[in-house]
Every structure is written in C-alpha cells, then in structure tokens.
Amino acid sequence: MMANPPFRGVLVPVATPFREDLSPDTKALVGHCRWLLDQGADGLALFGTTSEANSLGLDERLELLEAVVAAGIPAARLMPGTGACALPDAVRLTAHAAGLGCGGVLMLPPFYYKGVGEAGLTAFFIELVERVGDARLRLYLYHIPPIAQVGIPFGLLDELARRFPDTLAGIKDSSGDWEHTASLLAEYPQLAVFPGSETLLLDGLRHGGAGCITATGNINPAGIRAVFTQWETDEADTLQAHASAVRRAVQGHPMIPAVKAILARIHGDAGWRQVRPPLQELDRSVEVELLSAVTAAGLELPAA
Amino acid sequence: MMANPPFRGVLVPVATPFREDLSPDTKALVGHCRWLLDQGADGLALFGTTSEANSLGLDERLELLEAVVAAGIPAARLMPGTGACALPDAVRLTAHAAGLGCGGVLMLPPFYYKGVGEAGLTAFFIELVERVGDARLRLYLYHIPPIAQVGIPFGLLDELARRFPDTLAGIKDSSGDWEHTASLLAEYPQLAVFPGSETLLLDGLRHGGAGCITATGNINPAGIRAVFTQWETDEADTLQAHASAVRRAVQGHPMIPAVKAILARIHGDAGWRQVRPPLQELDRSVEVELLSAVTAAGLELPAA
Fold it and tell me: Which of A104, B24, B212, B249 is a Cys-bridge partner for B201, taking CB atoms 3.0 to 4.6 Å apart?
C-alpha cells in the first residue's frame, strides 16, 4: 500500500457547527468541509482547537469522523485531532482515524498535568504509536503552549524521529513565536512544519515550511491559499499582507466565536453562531463590529 | 428517599494502581479503598488529580467505579471525580456516579480553553446539572488553578447556589492559598469547604471548614484523621504539626509518584510504583531518600 504523502499547503481546523440543543450538526459540518475544499483548502484538520474538539465527547469524535468520510470527503485530505489526556482515549481515536485512511492525525500532548518531564511525554507518545500499531499512521504533533500549557519539546521530536521515522511526519507550531518556528524549520528539515497562523505562512515557506494550519482558514481559505499558490511570485508579499489584514481584524476578538459568527454570514445559517460551553457566543454588537472590520480588511462576505 | 448528607472529615483522592502493562489493577484498588476506610478515612474521592483520573479513559472510569461499588465499598462514602473538558463526557460520568448512589461528585471545570468567561463556565455547570437531572446529585466543585489553570470563580458558586441549592454541596480548594480558603469559608457558610491539603485542616476547621481532601491521605490517613477527631482538644496543634511534617517530607517530590512509592511499601506491593505516562516513577535513589524522610517525619512504615 502506498503511504500517505506529507501534507502541504493550507490546512483548516474545521469549526464544528452545533444545533441549539448543543448537538453537532453533521450536515452543516459536511457542507462546510466541501466548501473549504472547493475554496482551495489542501487539508481539513477536523477536531482542532478551533473545532472545539475538547468540548466533544469521545463518541461524538468517532461518529463525526465516520460521518464526514461516509459523506465522501476524501480521508486522505483529513488530519483529525486525536489527542487526549488519557492514553487509552488517544489510542482509540488515533487507531480509528488511521483505520479510516486519514492522511494524518494532529496530536496534542496530554495536557492535564503541568510541568511533566520530557521523558514522561516521550513515553506517552511511544506507547501511543506502539499500541496503535498501524503502518499507515502519520503523526503530526501539536505545539500550542498558550492553551495546552504543555508543549512539544525538541527532545520528544528527536526521540520519535529516531524510533518512528516513517510515522512522525510533522508539527503544527501554534506558539505564535517566529523564533520557535524558525528553529523547528532549521533543525527538522525532514518534518512538515506548519505555523499555526497564516501571518507566518510566507516566512515559513521561505524557510522550508510546509504551509499553515490556521483557524481563520475557516473564513478566508481562498485568500490564504493564494499566498501558498503564489509564494514564489512578485505578488507574494502583497497577498500575504491581504491575508494578514483579515487575520488581524479577527484577532481582537475571541477567536472561535468570531470565526463562527463570520461563518453564520458566509453560509447564511445563523446556527453557526452556536458554541459549546465553556465558550460563549459573541454579543451581537461585537459581531456587527467584527463583520465590519473583516470587510474593511478585504474579506468579501455575502449580504446579510 | 433521604438525600446524602454533606461529607465531613478526611477524604482521600485514592491513588489508582496500574499493572506493568498500564491497565488498572482493580483488586489492588479495592484493597486500598478498604484499608483507607479501616484507617479512618471519611470518604474516598476516587478519580481525583492524585488518582491520575485524567489519564484514565472514559470507559475505565465507569468500569472502575462499578467494580469498587460491586466489591462492597459503600457508595455513600464515595465522591468520584466526574469532571471532563467535554460536556457529554462530564454528564455521562456524573449521571453514572449519581445513579450508583455516590455520596457526591467532585468536579473539575472544563480545563482545555484558558481565560474563558465566568458566564461560559456557569453555562457549562447549569447544562450539566440539568442534563443529569437526578435529585440525588450532590456536587462538589474542584478549584485547582495550579494544575487546571481554569478555576472556580465566586460568581459561578453564587449562580449555582441560587439555582440548585439542594445540589451544590461544597468545594475543594486546592489553590494552596489560605486567604482564598478563608474567603470561601466566610462567604459560603452553607457549603462544605475542603482545603486540598491537611496542612490547612485545623485552620479550616476553626473557621467552619468541613475537613480536607488530600493526596497524602493515601499514606497517612490515621495521622490526618487524628487532627479531625481531636481538633477541639488540647492535642490539636501537636497532631496538626505531626501531620504537616509528613506532608512536608513528601512535598519536595513529584506528589503522585511519591505517594505511590510509599504505597508500594505500605501494601508490600512493588506494583504500586507504576504510574501512567506522562507521569514518571521516582528514581530508586530518590525513593530511598523519600522513605527515609517520611519515616524521620514520624510516619510508621512496614519494614521493606
């Protein structure tokens, strides 16, 4: 069997739509996945931070992934989040995704205990890979210290790269720190390194990066994809400036409710505003200001 | 049906024994529960931080609780941790515990997203209580900002106390900050307030506290229970000093591996050393030093 090639380009941590009773809206999720691929997204990182993955139950994550694949979204284009604090849950989610033929998985470290040692984190991932025991598995690690607090240390990457060179495929760096991303790019040329924001897309590509995995890919996939398509042309810096302007217009707001408020407008479906607690919807006055700001920044939105 | 009375006294977040293959050792767990009750523990807070609860899978938590109850440990003495980042998982664990007749549940807030608003946290717990919909439920909230990062704000307590006065029963305060515990005691006299360490047991009792829920209750239940039994006698300060000395001897070490290393000696079962990744066992040289330190602090241990 041919192994999945490494992901490249613009990957989107797909926002998860909920009904008023907080149940996932599978039909709206599949529709959004199709729209993102139509707009040029290279991959769909379902069950990321932006997807409220950690607000989904274990069974919900299994069922939603199956539903998306059953609806015809190509599994090879999927990089679902399968991290969990508990090894058995992480193994179950990861084995399930690999078994469905997903192109990769994006894994948070176990994030409950803080200040854990590198050896303990490494042991967690070694157990994970061995217990999943699936040669198809392609592992992308998820470094997001501002939220998970527990990060992905370089020593962990070194050990996994040494033990599982065919399995460890890349890393998403949501540190927001270009120096950290640059170090990853310099030290791990064999890994696909994705900054966690399109603001670092062009810089990343110029240093050997693979693309980006970004929350605002949900609302501006075409604008961000244009940077990737044309990064070696004279238009690159202008396209990057356009994409970054949209990102900055969103960033003053709580990211997930803001992305969902914009999706409500894009898809003409007010239900997209719904988030699961502990997150909260934007106040309507803030939403009006947000939509005005992203429009001013150049994002084209359908009329209300 | 008579409602469960509020917990009082010394509650122990029961350490979870694992076999070498990392599976839970149910028999050793039940044995440890019995020993703790024999030693005077007033309640067993299974699936706490010390229990590595967040390293257990959802199914494991359900099965272990059933096994402990089936083995004859009285459900009324149990206060299992049922918190989870995802509302459906928290509802399932909580409904299950209430259905088994547990005296209460100890709930972490959803701890993945950081900096979430009080309204969102409050919405989470309101949904939880309403979805569980069991009049037997007695809810103890778990404030442990050093690990969960997300705490239990006073406004959340106010709103839950107003909406669910018969359900909200208490709070465990693992802030390690006496001023915070004192504020809880002063402002919520109707709640059972448990400091998260026996070092604050006597101070808490003198200000209306209900007892304590403490990791080192696993290894020194009798010594800590003596403070509770005799807190109004002339011996109280001496007994508190003895208990605190043992705690301090443990505290220089990673708490969970240290507690388990001591339990290996107490129960004469080296398997107790086993932790799940991302935690790590103590080095043997550190273990030797630890056992010597707690013995010097007055804890009586069986010979090796």
Answer: B212
